């Protein structure tokens, strides 16, 4: 049975991965950590601790106290925030990662570290982006993701650290609100559709991006760490894919269920430039072959579930949107 420590447990992925890991491995076996002091509200039902994961001594002490054998390292600044604060993005995304990997090396822990479609750039093939291809991103977020992939590979090759990861596409959640990412429009559009019946999109029509519903993302994060290491050719940064669509496609799917929904566009040039440098679709055949990856949700199934959950939250007075 794994003993897991999660960094960034209060974030977009962590707030949902924490209960998923507790359901899989037992609540007491999963320690949720974050800088936030109110972790019991977002990550209740198991042990929590306040942690700056850039503090190697504090991290090592928690690993020892919890007897952790696996670290899910999720703490990071997302793409749009990272572009506004590039120096902070390097400090957080890279500084914390090297600290986590060094503690993992010293304490014998496995590590999950998510990468992203942001690791690709405008010179990468944008359709059916290969697993192994040119990676020259033009955003600070992307730079940290490429450097992170290489650093994780180094720690495996040099020190034997069992570090694994996936390149997540945009992740859509009915729990976590938008958190500063370029693909967050595909989250906010559902919230706004249920709350107000309209949405202003910051990406232009025809901007296709790879997307994934959160339940599939959680499965990918767990399944890659449980995979037979003998089958893994790519230890780190597997492409994982589920669906690819443009803003007008998701709007059309919503209108099938909410006919009065409307959408217009006010383009954010920063996020549009980032989106234009990312893949429209990824080839995830390596993940399918090496550890059996297969998504369960497409656009239609996700839209049904998102609107069902958010409509119920609105009925209970729990839906909070800007």
What does this structure look like?
The chain has 322 residues and is of the alpha/beta class. The chain folds into 2 domains: 4-169 and 213-239, NAD(P)-binding Rossmann-like Domain (Rossmann fold); 173-211 and 242-280 and 296-315, UDP-galactose 4-epimerase, domain 1, CATH 3.90.25. 44% of the residues lie in helices and 15% in strands. It has helices at residues 14-25, 39-42, 56-66, 79-84, 86-107, 140-159, 185-195, 214-226, 247-257, 269-276, 285-291, 299-315, and strands spanning 4-7, 30-34, 48-50, 70-73, 110-112, 115-116, 163-164, 166-168, 170-172, 198-201, 209-213, 238-239, 243-245, 262-265. A 6-stranded parallel β-sheet has the order 3-2-1-4-5-7, sandwiched between helices. Strands 6-8-12 form a 3-stranded parallel β-sheet. A 3-stranded mixed β-sheet has the order 9-11-13. The longest helix has 22 residues, at 86-107. It starts with a strand and ends in a 7-residue tail after the last helix. The mean pLDDT is 94.
Quick structural summary:
By secondary structure, the protein is α/β, with parallel strands linked by helices. 44% of the residues lie in helices and 15% in strands. The strands form four sheets. It has a six-stranded parallel β-sheet, sandwiched between helices.
Here the CATH topology of the largest domain equals: Rossmann fold
User: For the residues shown, what is the average pLDDT?
Assistant: 94
Strand order of the largest sheet: 3-2-1-4-5-7
Question: How many β-strands, per DSSP?
Answer: 14
Helix content: 40-55%
CATH class (first level) name of the largest domain: Alpha Beta
Gyration radius, rounded: 19 Å
Structural class: alpha/beta
